């Protein structure tokens, strides 16, 4: 297998992983919306900075040696922002 074939093969693997990530993010947003409905019904504030910190720290532990904490934050901040927006609807 030459380098172009190898790259194409690896890119196909990435495409499959990207599809899985999209499915998981959609599921996450659906659950976040459900949480938002529960919070709204019970008068609970949408923003929970302690929970966000817990999630970032959990990912930092799992990804130790792979990504810096600021990289993890850069990846997940947009997801949190969308989740919070969905919870407020």
Automatic annotation (TrEMBL):
The family database entries (InterPro entries) matched by this protein are listed as: Chorismate_II_sf (IPR036263), Chorismate_mutase-related (IPR051331), Chorismate_mutase_highGC-bac (IPR010958), CM_dom_sf (IPR036979), CM_II_prokaryot (IPR002701)
Q: Has keyword Isomerase? A: yes
Which GO MF term does the entry hold, naming one? chorismate mutase activity
Q: Name one GO biological process term.
A: chorismate metabolic process
- Where is each Chorismate mutase domain found? 1-89
Task: Please name the SUPFAM superfamilies in this protein's record.
Answer: Chorismate mutase II
Q: Record's Gene3D superfamilies?
A: Chorismate mutase
* Record keywords, A-Z: Isomerase
Q: Which PROSITE patterns match?
A: CHORISMATE_MUT_2
Q: Which PANTHER family does this one have? A: CHORISMATE MUTASE
* Name of protein: Chorismate mutase domain-containing protein
Native organism taxonomy: unclassified sequences, metagenomes, ecological metagenomes
């Amino acid at each position: 297998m030459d380098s172009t074939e190898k790259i194409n093969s690896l890119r196909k693997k990435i495409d499959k992983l990207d599809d899985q990530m999209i499915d998981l993010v959609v599921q996450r947003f659906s659950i976040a919306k459900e949480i938002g409905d529960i919070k709204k019904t019970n008068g609970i504030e949408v923003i929970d900075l302690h929970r966000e910190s817990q999630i970032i720290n959990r990912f930092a532990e799992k990804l130790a040696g792979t990504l810096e904490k600021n990289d993890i934050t850069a990846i997940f901040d947009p997801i949190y922002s969308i989740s919070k927006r969905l919870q407020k609807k």
